[in-house]
Design goal:
The strands form four sheets. Strands 7-5-1-8-9-13-12 form a seven-stranded mixed beta sheet. Strands 2-3 form a two-stranded antiparallel sheet. It has a two-stranded parallel ribbon with strand order 4-6. It starts with 5 loop residues before the first helix and ends with a helix. The protein folds into two domains: 242 residues, 3-Layer(aba) Sandwich (Rossmann fold); 71 residues, no CATH class. The protein is of the alpha/beta class. Helix content is 45%, strand content 12%. α3 runs parallel beside α11, α12 runs antiparallel to α13 and α13 packs parallel to α15. It is globular and about 75 Å long.
Length: 363
């Protein structure tokens, strides 16, 4: 039979060979990644020196706002606020002497999005923190908030923010009041949606001529190709339409814009810097915090993108020599993203960087 159908035989052998190669590559690729540290899930605030040692006395209060939207109606996908964008900023504020109140448009228990792959030490500590859990499960309705009680406001992202933040009159009023009282306004990822319709006393949009970052159109459309029909608008476009000078960074890497008392970040990986920039803008030197493995990975990825593989490896060696951790998984994820975008050479480079990291860790 196969003699008669030589082409069929060659095709089947080629397909089987390809499947075997893919399987072997997948097995090798997975083995480049470290085993999940299951002890992280039980970590508490008391085990984190940044939070438990050298406690700073009370400096005031910061308001954190999360979305109440739990479902995207047009595609019936669950949504909410991003846990990592809340937990990390929450602890930066707390470690720097500020009490944190959490509010939402509806109050009560808001919907939360937890991505297991993005969870780190502080995120699990937040889930094990009774006070933080009480506050996040019993948020204050925005209508009950008095802006004069706070030194700053921080707007958490998550896709739900695209729906209930832009036209919420009380939220607009709070942001306007704080900003015009020379207080700090911060937002990250989709959080800047809350800024879109905020007008100042002079009639101008708050965003006019302000340098601003948020989740970009490229990032949005890559994850959700139908985003233009799913959301009421693309955030980058809407911010620009209100006069913002949009400051776009590398896809899925840290990017923060600081324009006086307005501080905005592009995506979840910008959370640490947004929160600490807010502290600095309020006149305080941010408390020393050991850089996380994820942050080191983001720096390596940025160095690779801007300067190439050789410089990225130099950075890895320097960080490793200083006995700091590097999140291999995040670099591998960016490799997969590159493959999904058809960027074969970038995929290859990032896989070799992950392999290089594993060898260093083993040594």
């Amino acid at each position: 039979m196969f003699k008669k159908y030589k082409f069929l035989k060659i095709s089947l052998l080629s397909i089987l060979s390809l499947v075997l190669i893919i399987f072997l590559f997948g097995y090798w690729f997975i083995n480049l990644l470290p085993a999940r540290d299951k002890t992280l899930m039980s970590k508490t605030v008391n085990e984190i020196p940044y939070l438990s040692e050298n406690v700073i006395s009370n400096r005031g209060k910061i308001l954190v706002v999360v979305t109440s939207t739990s479902m995207i109606e047009k595609n019936q996908k669950k949504t909410g606020y991003e846990l990592t964008e809340l937990s990390r900023a929450y602890y930066v504020f707390q470690a720097n002497g500020f009490e944190v109140d959490i509010a939402s448009p509806k109050g009560g228990k808001p919907p939360v999005v937890i991505d297991d792959e993005d969870m780190g030490l502080y995120d699990y500590a937040f889930l094990n923190d009774k006070e933080a859990q009480y506050k996040s499960a019993n948020t204050i309705p925005l209508d009950q908030i008095n802006s004069s009680d706070y030194s700053a406001v921080y707007i958490v992202g998550g896709k739900g923010a695209m729906f209930d933040f832009p036209n919420h009159k009380k939220l607009q009023s709070l942001i306007k009041s704080l900003y015009e009282s020379n207080k700090v306004v911060g937002a990250v990822c989709h959080g800047p949606a809350a800024l879109i319709n905020v007008k100042l006393n002079n009639g101008d949009y708050l965003l006019k001529n302000k340098k601003v970052s948020s989740f970009t159109s490229k990032e949005e459309l890559f994850l959700i190709p139908e985003a233009k029909t799913v959301f009421p608008f693309l955030l980058q476009e809407e911010l620009s339409s209100k006069g913002a000078k949009f400051n776009e960074g590398i896809m899925y890497l840290e990017q923060v814009s600081h324009d006086d008392n307005l501080i905005t970040g592009q995506n979840p990986w910008s959370t640490w810097k947004v929160a600490e920039t807010m502290i600095a803008q309020m006149g305080y030197t941010p408390k020393y915090r050991e850089t996380t493995g994820e942050e080191h990975a983001v720096d390596i990825l940025a160095t690779y993108t801007l300067k190439g593989k050789k410089e990225a490896k130099k950075m890895i060696e320097k960080i490793s020599d200083e006995n700091h951790s590097i999140n291999r998984v995040l670099i591998a994820k960016h490799g997969v993203l590159a493959a999904m975008k058809g960027e074969v050479s970038t995929f290859y480079d990032l896989v070799t960087i992950v392999s290089f990291l594993k060898n260093i860790d083993q040594d």
